[in-house]
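User: Hello! My lab partner asked me to get a predicted holo structure for this protein. The small molecule is zinc ion, SMILES included with the sequence. Please write out the structure tokens.
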Amino acid sequence: MQIHLSEALGQNEAAVKNYTVPLSFDTFDCFGRICPVLKKEPVNLAILHKKGKKLVITAQVQVTLGVPCDRCLKEVSVPLDFVSEFEVDMNQTEEERIRNLEEAAFIEGYTLDVDKLVYSEMLVHMPMKVLCREDCEGLDEGHGTASGRQDSDRDEEAGADPRMAVIRDIFQKANPKGNKEV
Ligand SMILES: [Zn+2]
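Assistant: Hello! Below are the structure tokens for the protein in complex with zinc ion.
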């Protein structure tokens, strides 16, 4: 959906114009992987007319993507929930803005393309690594060893490990109560 920035510019300075904008895309091209959009909320868009044709655009985005696991390719639900903010100086010519800022990609003349804005911001907010679970062993899952699971069991028990209690005792003996005084 497209928003006309002249609406926000027509307001008094320091006034905010709010929009609720539905997203029109149902798939997302994440670096060559086409991921389905599993869930999406309309974007909460606020455009502040800061002063003298300067706008501050704030977009609140909540989208859930189905992204293949990096190891086994199973679809993982990846929620993206972020707020992006841009300051745009409409005193500049379009050429100047293109040179200066990334938002040139989604502002053409006085028209803001909300889908394009969200799309480019989603690329920025995608996690570097997507795994169905921490110890995913990849495509030959089920034929591997259980070493991964043993590791996480150990982590969970660390708090109750009697060896830790011994270490705590040693520290307490080395630092008699008096040490706690400030
Ligand atoms: Zn996996």
